[in-house]
Amino acid sequence: DAGVTQSPTHLIKTRGQQVTLRCSPKSGHDTVSWYQQALGQGPQFIFQYYEEEERQRGNFPDRFSGHQFPNYSSELNVNALLLGDSALYLCASSNWGVPNQPQHFGDGTRLSIL
Amino acid sequence: AQSVTQLDSHVSVSEGTPVLLRCNYSSSYSPSLFWYVQHPNKGLQLLLKYTSAATLVKGINGFEAEFKKSETSFHLTKPSAHMSDAAEYFCVVTVKTSYDKVIFGPGTSLSVIP
Question: Which residues, including other chains, have CB under 8 Å from residue B84's CB and lie 6 or more apart?
Fold first, then answer.
């Protein structure tokens, strides 16, 4: 039973570039959430996707956008990269509408901005 | 408003001694509470969850937590620390409103001294 998988594991970009991160949810899950975790801090919620629509959004600028595909996988896109975007980006999956369930996390993508 | 406080940013214990990681929450709704562990450069792994059943919850790797509504606390304990327990621990609250709102605590770094 495959868990949450994320790609790539590491990525180095320069300021102003654009990046796309990918996530495949745990088998049987239909909802994907993205988090940004800066060094030494807890994860911060970016947004959540279900049925190919953004359902919730945290306090992140429009430079952060996403997409969910019919197979439930998801992408996180960040435009006009800033040094402050350097972080571990975590994807979590779950089932929409199921109460009290924990999210399942991938190992993340480490994004470094030079 | 909902919030999560982890009272200690860093805890250090000797191998074989008890572990106590403290978590307090604030919520206007009945929350679900979780503890996750994160090893270096890894994603978050679920340790245990409280979802309004028994107030004493047992998790993986010998960890347990007790929900105390009167104290709005959900402290994580383990009778005897192992070297492999050294990691970052996050207390998480999920509140069911229109959508599930997931709130992370800032984390507690646990060091285990041989």
Answer: none
pLDDT at A106: 94
**Chain A interface disruption, residue of B2, B74, B100, most A CBs within 10 A:** B100
pLDDT digits (tens, 9 = 90+) for B12-70: 999 999 999 999 998 877 788 999 999 987 889 999 999 777 889 999 999 999 999 89
Cα gap B114→B101, rounded to integer Å: 39
Instruction: Please report the domains of chain B, with CATH numbers, ordered by start residue.
Output: 3-113 (2.60.40.10)
Closest listed residue to residue B76, CA positions, set B96, B46, B113, B41: B46
Domains along chain A with CATH numbers: 5-113 (2.60.40.10)
For testing the chain B interface, which of A100, A105, A110, A111 should be mutated: the one with the most B CBs within 10 Å?
A: A100
Is there a contact between B36 and A90 if contact means CB atoms under 8 Å apart?
A: no
B5 — contact with chain A (CB < 8 Å)?
Answer: no
